[in-house]
């Protein structure tokens, strides 16, 4: 009798072919619950757990004095959870449902469909390469610090603090604050030289229209980001508050802190996002975070040879759609 009730209940469900990451619902009233009465259906072409809230259990007289009332646990690691991957599989004409926690779902590669795009800012969305290089050369001349081509290449994608430490010789480390201040002053005074890469706004709009979550994750500081967005109104209108800047995370790139925070704010998992950046530090950050990386190289002839040839490359932002099919 119980199996018949469970079967009738399951037959009312809207079973999704694709895995869903969500909370648990009562099998009858469909309200979200953290604890439930657990039953198991094993007839009618199903092998699946069925859960009922306290109220629905009392309404169905056949279920009285049956079932186990407990929290939900992962079918892989056994850990308690309030949200899970709900995965349906079909084998020999029998439908089965399993539940996996976020961590196990990621390990098992349950959902690798890309749902979010994370962009670096400098050199990826906006063309500021020459501006930052000119700013460091300016600071170098002011404090009589020779700035090499290698230094200019290495500073791309990292914070001002990390770049200054790399450029200053050991006997002039005491100048670091003044050195950075001179560089920042030059950049802020010449922000009108920053331009958007061709097609980036249109691509972002198309991504949003298709249901993707679009964010910016940058090593740039809050003041720079705010002033830049105020100068580039169309970008600000599209991206809104979906920005993570340097003050929002502890360790700078290539630490995974920045990307991990961005992914958390997006409400996604690592396998559901890809990170687009223009620098070696962006590549290393994606590697430490274990997310898909797409190398934006506007001029392929000048690609950074430190980034492996096997890495996905785009020279135009519209090419991102080739990787989202």
Protein model, in words:
- There is one protein chain.
- By secondary structure, the protein is α/β, with parallel strands linked by helices.
- The chain contains twelve helices and 16 strands.
- It has an eight-stranded mixed β-sheet with strand order 2-1-7-8-4-3-5-6. It has a six-stranded parallel β-sheet with strand order 13-12-9-14-15-16.
- Helix 4 packs across helix 7 and helix 6 packs across helix 7.
- The mean pLDDT is 93.
Sequence stretches where pLDDT stays below 50 over 5 or more residues: none
Cα end-to-end separation: 47 Å
What is the typical, i.e. mean, pLDDT? Answer: 93
**CATH homologous superfamily name of the largest domain?**
HAD superfamily/HAD-like
Key words describing this protein structure:
Rossmann fold; eight-stranded mixed sheet; single chain; 12 helices; alpha/beta; 325 residues; 3 domains
Short description:
With 325 residues, this protein is of the alpha/beta class. Helix content is 34%, strand content 23%.
Please render the helix and strand layout as text.
Layout: H1 2-10, E1 20-25, E2 32-33, E3 35-41, E4 46-52, H2 54-59, E5 68-73, E6 80-81, E7 83-91, E8 94-100, H3 102-107, E9 116-119, E10 126-127, H4 129-142, H5 149-154, H6 160-167, H7 176-189, E11 195-196, H8 200-209, E12 213-217, H9 222-231, H10 233-239, E13 243-244, H11 257-266, E14 273-277, H12 280-289, E15 292-296, E16 312-314
Parallel strand pairs: 4-8, 9-12, 9-14, 12-13, 14-15, 15-16
Antiparallel strand pairs: 1-2, 1-7, 3-4, 3-5, 5-6, 7-8, 10-11
